[in-house]
Design brief:
Blueprint (H helix, E strand, L loop, with lengths): L1 H59 L16 H17 L10
Length: about 100
């Protein structure tokens, strides 16, 4: 009976040791995952900052013309704006109609 008890205790000791090692492995894996998450969060923050910077830069390149009556541009707003710029700024600034992406 004592031998059986001793064997059971030895088996329990082995299991406890195995469980302790498994816990340590999981803790190490969790630490690695947390570091990866922190790195990804930092990368996401940098990318979001870059997207915001690019969006702001794109907005600065927009041209807004205020004060024209509604519908004055007719069917082709792009051609109207090109002609308007040439008339207002002259042929020195625009020897040929400016290339516009959209109006």
């Amino acid at each position: 009976a004592v031998d059986q008890l001793s064997q059971r205790m030895d088996a329990q000791d082995v299991k406890v040791k195995e469980l302790g090692e498994a816990v340590e492995e999981q803790a190490d894996a969790q630490t690695v995952a947390a570091l990866e998450v922190d790195g990804l969060k930092e990368r996401q923050r940098r990318l979001l900052d870059r997207v915001e910077e690019l969006a702001n830069r794109a907005c600065r390149k927009n041209l807004r013309i205020i004060g024209l009556p509604e519908g004055v541009e007719g069917a082709d707003a792009t051609a109207f704006v090109a002609d308007l710029l040439m008339q207002l700024m002259g042929t020195e600034a625009f020897p040929r109609p400016p290339e516009l992406e959209g109006a």
